[in-house]
Protein 1
Amino acid sequence: MNSTNIPPDIEPRRLHVACVMDGNGRWARKRGLPRTEGHTAGEEALAEIVRAAAARNVGWLTVFGFSTENWVRPRPEVRHILSLHRKIFGRVDEMRRNNASIRWIGRPFSEKGARTPVYVQRAIQKAVADTAGSNGLVVTVAFDYGGRAELARAAGRAAGAGPVDAHAISRNLYDPDLPPVDVLVRTSGETRISNFLLWQINGCRVYFTDRPWPDFDATELDRALALADTPR
Ligand code: FPP
């Protein structure tokens, strides 16, 4: 045992950063471009943040890719955002080069109300399988995801199996291995919490920035990481 009582062979958990990638539409409007161009730039910004996070030895990066509420957007915009999900889940070689694995959270495909189209399901399944050998950064994309839906489902499942306490809820989340969030990032000047990781953000730091998501870069990531406490 050392002076911190941490056995030398047990490393502290690496940081978990979660991002609400707001402001793609506003980024595009400012440039006189269609909203879809903002999302395209947002996907590229995400790929860049994956590289930056991997280089900084971040353990977990979880992003809000598409919410259970986003389905009401205009059809062409939804179609475009879905195609960008196929693109990010297709970046397998790049993820592997960064020793990053891809995971997904959201309403399980076979459950009532779930809306993930089959071609996105396939892209998710392939990306998860093809990057499972990486042991560095874990990139989790929340798609067809809502924090309240996740909690309601976890409570329902826990209730069928004994006392409903915090451990039982945690065990029944979409990905029970997802650690607590250390820093939540929200871009584009939106200083609110939304329906994202409502259980996992307990106690986390929050980094709000006026920059829209397509302009979120490695320097911004460093500012967010600087807020984090020593990993628990
Ligand atoms: C917010 O911009 C972003 C989204 C609705 C999610 C989609 C995110 C991306 C396409 C970025 C890339 C990520 C993945 C996983 C492919 P907004 O439309 O709400 O912008 P606004 O608030 O300025 O209107």
Protein 2
Amino acid sequence: MWQLFRKTPMWRPRPFRDRYDVVIIGGGVHGLATAYYLGRAGVRDVCVLEKSYLGSGASGRNTAIIRSNYRTPEGVSFYDESVKLYERLAADLGYNLLFSQQGHLTLAHTDSAINGLRVRAEVNQLMGVESRLIWPEEIQRLVPALDLSPRPRYPVLAALYHPPGGIIRHDAVVWAYARGADRMGIAIHPFTEAVGIGTSNGQVTSVLTSRGEIRAGVVVNATAGFCSTVAKMVGLHLPIVTHPLQAFVTEPLKPFLDKVIVSATLHVYVSQTDRGELVIGSEIDPYSSYSSRSTLPFLEATAAHTLELFPCLRRVRVLRQWAGICDMTPDYSPILGEVPGLKGFILDVGWGTYGFKAGPVAGKRIAELIATGRTPELIKPFSLTRFYDDTLVGEKAAAAVSH
Ligand code: PYC
């Protein structure tokens, strides 16, 4: 009888083997998506290593915002593919991901911010992405609770409106990719830490883990927060500085906000989940650290900035706070693909404050690279070599509130 009520596990423990064709380090959305799309491409002798539980890193410590209104053509096409994958992901994975494509507004409080948003709107439109500049009357209609009066220190002057943007249930994305990969026979090993990587004659040969050595010809670094540490295992120094990023959640409220609201000037973004909680985040902390401790100064400043936009929230209680760890590159774009001079070592790193939204496209295209041996056009601009040949992809202007 009890079997009637027994839950089917999302993924199964599998024997720990000492050889796989591909080892993926990092059991978050990027690592698991890579495993899933590898499986779909017929590459199934794969394992995913995660030092803690699945989704315990940046995949479980973000604000789950999905959008493609970036600033560069390279960034827009890349994130546009991710939004499109997210749109059909629940059907592909057979799991409700609560994707709420409610629309995304980036507010402008200064003339120069309006100019920046205008450029983004034009690039977006040229690339076929829905995004346009709107003015206070329309903003007020879309977001009645927003204070559009001249009262705030930085009144709202305009906004970049991106209807396909939205939010998703981030842990469900992680679980569903894990289940999809598991169903194709891919091994998922949580609580298994990579502590070293073996190389020989310019080729990756093995991963040393807390449970023993695994031989492998391809190793993917799909970690966030610790990607520099993993890269150092092969003697590679990445151009990355790691910072904490904090956020908090309020008590649940009746639905009143069905748009994601971002203000770069106030360093804040606000959305309301299906459960009614407000999810509120900020800029990266202004110091480099691997710490994921929350701080009171962050909470005070971010709550004050939120009240500039939504004075109606002044009595709302905060439920919990957290911090994630962000690997910032100099141009605010990720690093994807092979490493010159080291065969078999693949990078899916440098995700700054925008990694969660890229999980599907990064996983799909890294899997394609491994399965075919060819770097897909979509990820070519994000190669490590751009830092040596001066072909940066400057996305700082579109990286949420980080400018
Ligand atoms: O890039 O959309 C974004 C974002 C939201 C929160 C942090 N980054």
